[in-house]
Specification:
Number of helices: 4
GO biological process, one term: cell redox homeostasis
Order of helices and strands: EHEHEHEEH
Shape: globular
Strand content: 25-35%
Keywords: Disulfide bond, Electron transport, Redox-active center, Transport
InterPro entries: Thioredoxin (IPR005746), Thioredoxin-like_sf (IPR036249), Thioredoxin_CS (IPR017937), Thioredoxin_domain (IPR013766)
CATH superfamily: Glutaredoxin
Distance between the termini: 20 Å
Number of domains: 1
Family: Belongs to the thioredoxin family.
Oligomer: single chain
Number of strands: 5
GO molecular function: protein-disulfide reductase activity
CATH topology: Glutaredoxin
């Protein structure tokens, strides 16, 4: 079982931008119902897909990073490959859809 990494404004660069390979970042907030609904799916992806690093960023606690990526709706999942954003999914989505996006970029 892989851990989901909680990223912050402070460790964003080291955990996401400097990572070689694919990173899936779930932008979320405590008060967001759809974020709570997608959380178990994000956890399943973390456990089932070997070649992707899975991270979560609380938008209320990390405003600078959320603003940098123009997060206006949550949940938003952005996929980064070798430090560059390559895809995103806004709103609740299925595990199959997330796996499809991941497979496009592996």
């Amino acid at each position: 079982m892989k851990n989901i990494i909680n990223v912050t404004d402070a460790n964003w660069e080291s955990e996401v931008l400097n990572h070689d390979g694919l990173v899936m970042v779930d932008f979320w907030a405590e008060w967001c119902g759809p974020c709570r609904m997608i959380a178990p799916i994000v956890e399943q992806i973390s456990n089932e897909v070997e070649d992707v690093k899975v991270c979560k960023l609380n938008v209320d606690e990390n405003i600078a990073t959320a603003h940098r990526y123009q997060i206006s709706a949550i949940p938003t999942i952005i996929f980064f490959k070798d430090g560059k954003p390559v895809d995103q999914v806004i709103g609740f989505t299925s595990k199959d859809n997330l796996k499809s996006v991941i497979n496009r970029h592996l």
